[in-house]
Amino acid sequence: MDDLRSIGDERLLGLVRNLLSDSPKSRERACETICDWARSFGRREVRTLASLLASAAVLEQDAACLESELNALGELSTTGLFETADIAVLRRLPRASVRPGDVGQLHDLMEQYF
To answer: What is the DSSP string of 88-99?
Structure first.
């Protein structure tokens, strides 16, 4: 049952803070944690994180962080708990900012949701 899965508000807030950090390392670690915990999140948590990750990816200046954000979105997509509207902003991601090795991940997300 979806509502039984949850990492709790305190952990969710910690992830959100790290995703919004000025430090690229903190943002990357948060994305790695999201990948590791993807199956532990409830629907509300997945939708919150997916929306935040999509917005962060559009604004991301660090190529390694962008890769991490796309990977985390890919992991969250396997849960089936977020919707196209949650990541709609991803359509504004400048393709030129995506490294050639990360284009596949972005293409998969776009094909799956748009």
So the answer is: GGGGGS-GGGS-
pLDDT tens string 82-106: 999 999 999 999 888 899 999 999 9
Contact (CB, 8 A) for 66 and 60: yes
Q: What is the separation of C-alpha 99 from the centre of its chain, rounded to a whole number of angstroms?
A: 17
From residue 4, give the alpha-carbon distance in Å to each of 39, 47, 58, 80, 86: 12, 16, 32, 16, 21
pLDDT tens-digit readout, 61-77:
999 999 999 999 999 99
Eight-state DSSP code of residue 22: S
- The radius of gyration of the chain's CA atoms, rounded to the nearest angstrom, is 13
Return the closest-CA partner of residue 39 out of 72, 79, 3, 80.
Answer: 79
Q: What is the DSSP letter of 21?
A: -
Q: Which domains occur in the chain, in start order?
A: 2-113 (1.25.10.10)
DSSP character at residue 23:
-
